[in-house]
Every structure is written in structure tokens, then in C-alpha cells.
Design brief:
single chain, alpha+beta, 5-stranded mixed sheet, globular, about 375 residues, 7-stranded antiparallel sheet, tRNA-splicing ligase RtcB, 9 helices
Length: about 375
């Protein structure tokens, strides 16, 4: 960990020069009180993924990112990992997931938003139009890239579900409307009407993402009942965001804490930290580490860009890294940029943040459903 007063770093491996420069530039901003870099930190536009940024009076849309509310949900399924021990069942589950959990959008004729989202307006007519058009058909859809539905086995052999998704296109529209994604780290004074509008829209997107994950988990529950004959233990369900901003007290100051690819890890707080596709994931409890702004990593973090991964990882190499995990082999060529080898070792990430969060449960992947 860095001992610098403003920039604190928990690292699983040496940081590249571009990542270091990005973090240092952020820490020098006049309104920034502290920056905490998590062990999965990696380069992104304006603000690194895996960065926690505390400011005194200003909001930085790029320190939240466009997939506002992106996060994880987990729930225990009512069967053991051996329920997916044969190819026939695994193939049937994957096929039904494709039908019940679209990766891009629902058919317009049947798509709806929950009433709580439909009735709550966004801050301008343009965003309201996108809510009706984009937000409606993308609600409860998975998305592409690193988003997934995964069946996982715990140490006792019990099967768990993990869902990773966010606010989809409407979150990106909110960031762009409020001046994010220009590469220059634009900011908004929180106490102004513009700041209040941004915070209102962020809260809407957080709720969208949370409800979307829950609805996808319910769709998976129906698949589990039909194919595996199991019932989901809904009392075990929990959820956490890793792209958001909120008001928090740290070091005697009340600050705006932005997390972009990081989860809140207050003392005893439940968290979900996924590995890469084919690697272990973890349920955690935060340790409330003050220097990390009570945060921990949100996952493994990339070590290869998508273009580099597609260049160096073959379908055969992907298959070898995914041995023992069911996935749709028909799209293997398009999943190469999501191969485990494109990500940091999640075990090293977890070791690097032992003072930030404690492992409650380690889970091994059994079946992975992803879009491309």
C-alpha cells in the first residue's frame, strides 16, 4: 500500500505507467480529498476502473462511469453442483437462459419497466424519451462484455447463482447527458441544480440496475425449477453495486465518494467479488478500512485489452482455460476477449486486499452464460 496522504494503492502487481499517471493526475485535482486504488485497477477513459475517489464539493461523472449501478447479485439454489453434472442438463439450462435472459433487448411489444421506474421521471425530456425507448426494452437484459449469469459451487457442494449486470444503455445516456466521457474529467458542483439533477438520475439508474438483476435472477429461478427441479432460497439473496456515488463520512469530513469498479466494504457489509470466467468468485464481509474509504475490489481486473486478448488467445486456449466449466462452445471464438487469461489472478487480488475485506465463501464456476 502506498503511504501517500492523498493516493492510497493496494496492488496485486506493479502498476503500469499509464495507470500510475492517471491515478496521480486524479489525486492532484483541487477538490479531491483522497483516491484509493483497488488491486483490480486498470486503465479506462478519464478515471481508472478500480478507483475510489472522494471529493469535497464536486461530482465527477467519469469517476462513476456509464454503467451506473453495475453490480452483482447472488442467491443460493436448492440443489448441489452435481445437478449440472451431465452435458444434457447443462445444454438445456444454457438454451433456456438464452430464451429467458436476453443479452441485448426484449421484444418491444412485450417489454415493460417496473412501475417504480416508469412513474419516476428522469431529469429531462431527452432522458425520459430514452427511458421509454432504450430503458424499457433493455430492462432485465444481461448486456455484453464481462456481464454474466453464472452457476457456482461452494465448498459444501451447494449450487449458487451470480448475476452481473448494470443500467445498460440508459446509464450511458445519463453519463453523456451530464457531461461525462469527454476524457477531460469534467465535474459538476454538487449543490447546484445541475448537481442535483445528476444525483437524481444516478439514483434512478441504481434502482434500475438493482431491479434488473433481481428480475433476471427470477427468470433463472424458473429455469432451475424446470430443468433441475430445484427451488431457490430467496432469503439468501443479496446484491451490491460497484459503479456509484454517495455522501459518506471519512476522516472527520463528509465527502462525495465515487466508486468505479469498486464495492463498498464497511465493517460487516456483505459483498460479491467475481473472478474471471472460469476462475473462483467470493462472497465477502467488509472490514471497514478507513484508508481505502471502506472499499474493496469489484473483481479480478483486466491485464489485457480486448483487442490484445483476441490477438493472443485462441479458441483452443480458451477451451483449455475453461476446462470443467459448461459454456456455449458455439460462441467460443467471440468469447476469447473474456478468457480467464485476459484477467488478473483473482487469488492474488484477494490476497492484496486482506485488510479490506474478509472471505465468507469461495465459489467455483460450474456453468457460465454470457453474451457477445
Amino acid at each position: 500500500m502506498s503511504s501517500d496522504e492523498t493516493l492510497r494503492i493496494w496492488s496485486a502487481a506493479p502498476l503500469g505507467p499509464e495507470v500510475s499517471r492517471s491515478l496521480e493526475r486524479l489525486a492532484r485535482n483541487d477538490d479531491v480529498a483522497a483516491v484509493a486504488a483497488m488491486p483490480d485497477v486498470h486503465l479506462a477513459n478519464a478515471v481508472c476502473v478500480g478507483a475510489v475517489v472522494a471529493t469535497r464539493s464536486r461530482l465527477f461523472p467519469d469517476a462513476v462511469g456509464g454503467d451506473i449501478g453495475c453490480g452483482m447479485a447472488a442467491v443460493r439454489l436448492g440443489c448441489g453442483g452435481d445437478a449440472l453434472g451431465d452435458r444434457r442438463r447443462a445444454t438445456e439450462v444454457l438454451e433456456r437462459l438464452r430464451q429467458r435472459v436476453p443479452t441485448t433487448q426484449h421484444r418491444s411489444a412485450t417489454a415493460t419497466l417496473p412501475e417504480s421506474l416508469h412513474q419516476r421521471p428522469l431529469s429531462c425530456a431527452g432522458l425520459e424519451a430514452k427511458k421509454s425507448r432504450i430503458g424499457r426494452v433493455q430492462f432485465a437484459t444481461l448486456g455484453r462484455g464481462n456481464h454474466f449469469v453464472e452457476f457456482q459451487r461452494d465448498a459444501a457442494g451447494q449450487l449458487w447463482l451470480m448475476v452481473h449486470s448494470g443500467s445498460r444503455g440508459i446509464g450511458q445516456a445519463i453519463r453523456q447527458h451530464h457531461g461525462g466521457d469527454d476524457g477531460n474529467l469534467s465535474s459538476i458542483e454538487a449543490r447546484t441544480s445541475a448537481g442535483r439533477r445528476y444525483l437524481h438520475d444516478v439514483e434512478w439508474a441504481l434502482e434500475y440496475a438493482r431491479l434488473s438483476r433481481r428480475q433476471m435472477a427470477e427468470a433463472v429461478n424458473r429455469v432451475v425449477g424446470e430443468v433441475l427441479g430445484a427451488r431457490t432460497d430467496w432469503e439468501s439473496y443479496f446484491d451490491c453495486h460497484h459503479n456509484f456515488v454517495r455522501r459518506e463520512d471519512h476522516g472527520g469530513e463528509t465527502l462525495w465518494v465515487h466508486r468505479k469498479g469498486a464495492i463498498s466494504a464497511r465493517d460487516g457489509e456483505a459483498g460479491i467479488i467475481p473472478g474471471s470466467m472460469g476462475a473462483p468468485s467470493f462472497h465477502t464481509r467488509g472490514r471497514g478500512n478507513a484508508r481505502s474509504l471502506c472499499s474493496s475490489s469489484h473483481g479480478a481486473g483486466r491485464i489485457m485489452s480486448r483487442s490484445e486478448a483476441r490477438r493472443v488467445i485462441s479458441t483452443a486456449r480458451l477451451g483449455a482455460q475453461m476446462r470443467g466449466v459448461w459454456f456455449d462452445n458455439r460462441i467460443a471464438n467471440r468469447l476469447r476477449d473474456e478468457a480467464p487469461g485476459a484477467y488478473k489472478d483473482i487469488r492474488a487480488v484477494m490476497r492484496a486486499q486482506r485488510e479490506l475485506t474478509a472471505v465468507v465463501r469461495r465459489l467455483e464456476p460450474v456453468l457460465v452464460y454470457k453474451g457477445t
